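Throughout our pipeline, every protein is held as a single compact record rather than as scattered files. Such a record has a labelled line for the sequence and another for the backbone structure tokens. The remainder of this section carries one protein's record, kept here as part of the documentation:
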Amino acid sequence: MAIICDHAVVLRRYPYGESSLVVHVLTREHGRVALLAKGAYRPTSRYFGVLDFGATLELEYSRAPRSDLGAREDDADPQLYDLLEATLDELARTSTPWRTHTRFVLHVLEHAGLAPALSTCAMCGGAAPANTTGRAWFSAGAGGRLCARCAQAARASGRRVGTLPLAVLDDARSLLASTDDDRQANWTSTRTDLVRDFVGRFLDYHLETRLKSQRAFLAVKNRNAPADTNG
């Protein structure tokens, strides 16, 4: 059996039998891989504290011709891997983890071709000015920010259309354009929460489910809803 060497991030681990672990990792050159780490669940194993969630490793493993571990191998995405590794490094040193998390989600959406339109109209590509109250038309189903004419057309086609504060869209754009927290050094926690709320609900729409890490945060009323409505 050939030995494969790759960089990896541990995504998941769980016991297998009394002494082993099944470990799911995202590798840079081979995509997501499920491995059986024999004996690694023993406290005396040198791998016991190494194969932990979020750990970044230089990994050597062998691949069996047939495996029932169920990983989707050979679907490599080095750009996504680099983004995840950089985000984990930043999370280890930042004092604003949720801002880092929100930036990561925006970059993943962009990488997948699903990033919301934040500046121009998602439907016609033209200007999408804010209204007199400083809010812009927005529809997750239509792809993001909308001009007034396209907002009307989207609503007529059955899409849900609301508004978002222009400042929140500007902050999301700033996050997407940056690679670290330096450019957001003067942000308040409220600004972060408003962008996180908008991005989390946008992600909800495209995943058609809510991530466990977001359930408590998004269980309250939409933080970006107009003051006189329920959003």
Q: What stands out?
A: Residues 28 and 78 are 5 Å apart (CA to CA). The helical segments are 78-91, 97-111, 148-156, 166-177, 189-207, 212-218. The chain has a mean pLDDT of 90. Residues 94-218 form one domain.
